[in-house]
Structures are given as C-alpha cells and as structure tokens.
Amino acid sequence: MSVAYLFVREDREYLLSPGERLESDLGILEVPEDVSPGDTVETHLGTAFRVRKLRGPDLFNHFERTGAPMMPRDLGLIIGHTGIAGGDHVLDAGTGTGVLSASMARAGATVTTYEVNSEFADVARENMELAGVRDSVDVRTGDVTEELTELRASESTDDTGKFDVVTLDTADAPTVVANASGLLVDGGFIAVYSPFIEDTRETVEAAREEELEDIRTFETIQRRMDFDDRGSRPSTAGVGHTGYLTFARKQ
C-alpha cells in the first residue's frame, strides 16, 4: 500500500492515497498526486475535505481487521508500564491486526512478532506498511512457543541479553512466561493480555515460578463521560471492561 491520508469532513472520514478516486453522496473526490497533510480538497460538488496525517488512534480505526484489535487504553498501559522506547527490541506474540506491534514500533522499538495464522500475518504486514513501520516490524508466521530455543540463542540486542520487552496476547502465554528469563535482558519487562481471569492466574503462577519481580495484574476498565443540558454522568453505552493485563520484570 502506498502512503495514505485521512480525508475528513465533520462526521465523515475516508482513508485515501494520492491518485485515488472516491465517489459518494457528497460528490466525486479526485485525490491529487501531490496531496499532503494540511491541504483542503473538494469534490466536484464543492464539498471540502481536510487532509490529515495518520496518527496512532487512526490506525486502530483504519487497519484491516482480522479480529478484535487491542483497545487504545490497553496499548497505553502496555507502553506506559514497560517504558517501551527508541532502541528497544520487543518480542510479541499473537499479532492479530497488528495494532500493538505498530504502536510499539511508532514509539521507536524494533518488533519481532509471531502470528500462527498465515492469512492474518499477511494482513498484519500490509497494516505495518500503512502505519509506516514496515522496516521496524518483522511479522513472522508461526507459533512462538516452537521458536523459544532459537529465540533465546539467536536474538540479541547486546552482549548480555535478548529482548527488552516481551508482549503476549495468546492462550499459551504461560508457556512463554515460563521461559522469560532466557528471553529478557536484566530488568526487562513482560506484559500479557488476556480476556479471561483463569488464563491470567496461570500467567501469574508461571511468572512466580520463573522468579520474576514486581508481578502486577490490572483489569482495564474505562468509562466515557456524557455532558448534556440535564447534567453530567458516565455513559451507559458500550462495555467498559476489555481484559486483564499482567506485568512482570526480570531481576
């Protein structure tokens, strides 16, 4: 996919590349080849669209989906609690749509991510190109639990360790956690997302067996606020709970 921008008007938003043509009830929009963020372009009916550069929240909305992507609130907690930054090397498993991998890469990390479904992996690679992080994210097709020995032996960010952070969104996360010491640099973090408390407990038990430190689990809940003429209160729409996040650190 070539570079793409958002074309925005009030409650309308389209993802388009230079040279594309959009037909809608607002008219025909011919996207100029030299379009850039900040421009205003019009349809043949005179309807104006503002051109924007894609940012993190836009990726969540416009990535091609192969399932439910990780929510922005979960992405923020993972990056915030592990301190992912430029120069870090991250091992990720359960790529899915690739929102987490792309977000970590946009924060400056180099990401190696595993996806067992080959079709999902292909979509994730296309999404990495859309996010502008194709060179920073290596999407591998396969089961990370079958590659642990090789990863411990071959992947290295320096002379003393392997990965700065390991992020997992898979049912077999406890198996990877049980090998965390051989994957992480000293002081490195592991972060595990799970929708089920039973899996979360297994992850915590594996982290304890591995003698990881600072083991913490959070339920992620977020409520949107509504403000109108009658008053202000939490929204009654939507689901506030997404899942459980467990963090731990190598000594």
TrEMBL record:
One of its GO terms (molecular function) is methyltransferase activity. It comes from the Archaea. Keywords: Methyltransferase, S-adenosyl-L-methionine, Transferase, tRNA processing. SUPFAM superfamilies: S-adenosyl-L-methionine-dependent methyltransferases (SSF53335). InterPro entries: SAM-dependent_MTases_sf, TRM61_C, tRNA_MeTrfase_Gcd14. The keyword Electron transport does not apply. GO terms for biological process: methylation; tRNA processing. Residues 73-226 form the tRNA (adenine(58)-N(1))-methyltransferase catalytic subunit TRM61 C-terminal domain. PROSITE patterns: SAM_TRM61. Pfam families: GCD14. This is Methyltransferase domain-containing protein. It comes from Halovenus rubra. The lineage of its organism: Archaea, Methanobacteriati, Methanobacteriota, Stenosarchaea group, Halobacteria.
